[in-house]
Amino acid sequence: MSNKKNEKLTIEKILEKKRILETEENKPYYSEFFGAEIVIENHPLKKVSEIVSKDYGEDSLRADFELIYAFCPIFRNKKLHEEYNVQDPIDIIELVFNHNLGAIQDLAKAILKRYGLEVDKVQEIKKQ
User: 84, 87, 89, 121 - which has most CB atoms within 10 Å?
Assistant: First the structure.
């Protein structure tokens, strides 16, 4: 029986992982709230890092709003902003989700997961 911990990394394994990641990275997120798929854009890791490491003070939800706004192009639509009469475009997230915290957090978690981050890890980053 082979011990996986002792396997050496090979070029083939790296290329296999690359193919798997490429097929997964463009999968849309299915929102139970909307009953539809939401496109999540791919951005450089630096963009995620900037959002999750920013100090939002007492407005901890702002990180989720900014993350969703930055990574989901549907919410950057000007017509949507006009219909909801928002002054700050990021406020659209709370409004379109009808203040449904669970749905907002689920989408934010899905975005973070694509970058290998879990909510607990984000909290660790913020503490540093």
Answer: 89
